[in-house]
Predict the structure of Glycosyltransferase family 2 protein.
Amino acid sequence: MAKKISLVVPCFNEEKTIPLFYAALQAVKPQLRGAELEYWFINDGSHDTTLDVLRELQIKDPQQVHYISFSRNFGKEAALYAGLQAATGDYVAVMDADLQDPPEQLAEMLAGIEDEGYDVVGTRRVNRAGEPAIRSFFANTFYRFINKISSTPIVNGARDFRLMTRQVVDAVLSMNEYNRFSKGLLSWVGFNTKYLSYENRDRVAGQTSWSFWKLLRYSIDGIIDFSDVPLVLASFVGFASFLVSLAGIAFVIIRKIIYGGSVTGWASMVSIMLMIGGLQLLCLGILGKYIGGIYLEAKKRPIYIVKEKK
Ligand code: UDP
Ligand code: MG
């Protein structure tokens, strides 16, 4: 029996790319074993005419095309969540609108699930060619670091582009946390995952909305969401400096007994005080990140707000 594949596509200022995306997917549809397609475009508070483009497309192809439009920009993670909730397919693919995720790979993904029995077929960058060296360096460092300190494996270079079975989608949806770090959530649910290799390619139109700082904040959120090692580290550093200070006190007392009083060494004193003060602030900051996370979760705010849906 022919299956239904839902395509979840977060869109933020993608007026130029959506028509190209739709055309490219319609073109690969015949290779998908007669599967039905269901498009779920999520307009994540775009400032351009993305919503008009979606409305037009929906009128042109009401059978397959659906969209959800948010009341403002809630971020890609929220858009993904909304799309996964709306999707009704037996299989669900998550794809970017900019055609950086090659639609031709869908056929291979489908084969991975139907013939080889995987639950998820994802894509993974084999190289970072074309990326500034400094960015690759930070990315690689981030992955090495997070995999050391988190028990949930986060695959270096894994893209969000993937095809999942209904079972996996339901598992991902069962995690209704507010702080959503998809790379972690998708890995946390487990299941058998196969990675296809992926060659970097440029977006067909428009521009990326990720700056270096946005990526840095995103990686910090990822670490906070999937590891409590920074907290342990803070206590560890605190304990170590306590031990060092004990040794220091012993040294001072013994020196006093042997040589008598002295006022030398105030410079080193100030440096040490600065260092300890800095460490305390750092640890407070780490604590603050976790408490902030708890605060946001505790409010139980909705992950997104829908303004229009078809
Ligand atoms: N996106 C989104 N909300 C945002 C930022 C991005 O829905 O706040 C969407 C965007 O439209 C695209 C996908 O997420 O479909 C990936 O974004 P982008 O291409 O800018 O990221 P990159 O591929 O450069 O990592
Ligand atoms: Mg992109």
